[in-house]
Amino acid sequence: LFSGGQDWLNANESPFVGEYSLNSNKLNRYPDCQPKDVLQAYAAYAGVAPEQVLVSRGADEGIELLIRAFCDAGQDSILICPPTYGMYAISAETFN
Questions:
Q1: By the 8 A CB rule, do 77 and 67 touch?
Q2: Which end of the chain is more exposed for a tag (fewer CB within 10 A), N or C?
Q3: How many helices and strands, by DSSP H and E, does the chain display?
Q4: Closest-CA residue to 60 (of 86, 41, 82, 78)
């Protein structure tokens, strides 16, 4: 059983303690930004060309890239409809 207040599920944390082992021989702190195998797999899944796929290092970066690509600072607005992921508002404010 969980005692109240110690489990936070808003950032995909698992409330369960799992056993795992780590082999540091295969760790790479800086993987490819656009890994070819991942791009090809996503493209095949979506039925598009690999050149039409962009991989991000998580939702935060993806949101930031979308705002930078489609919004002009000080001119465009972003509608935030709670409850939603908090990074939308943070990125919108960061990029004015």
A1: no
A2: N
A3: 3, 0
A4: 86
The two structure tokens encoding residue 72: 């002009």
Can you tell me the mean pLDDT for 69-92? 91
CA distances to 18, 45, 48, 96 from 86, rounded to whole Å, are: 28, 28, 30, 16
Residue found under tokens 């109240």: 4
Taking the C-alpha atoms of residue 96 and residue 76, their distance in angstroms, rounded to an integer, is 9
8 A C-beta contact, residue 42 and residue 53: yes
Secondary structure (DSSP) of 34-66:
S-HHHHHHHHHHHTS-GGG----SSHHHHHHHH
Cis before 82? omega within 30: no
Instruction: Quote the crossing angle between the two packed helices 87-94 and 59-70, to the nearest 10°.
Output: 40
